[in-house]
Amino acid sequence: MGDPLDARDTQATRVLDRLAEAYPDAAISLRFSNRFELLVAVILSAQCTDQRVNSVTADLFETYSTPAEFAEADQETLAEQLSSITYYNNKARYVRGAARRIVDEHDGEVPDSMSALTDLPGVGRKTANVVLQHGHDVVEGIVVDTHVRRLSRRLGLTDERYPESIEADLMDVVARDRWREYTRLCIAHGRATCTARSPDCGECVLEDVCPSSKLDHDIDLASGESW
Question: How far apart are CA 60 and CA 205, in angstroms?
Answer without folding.
Answer: 39
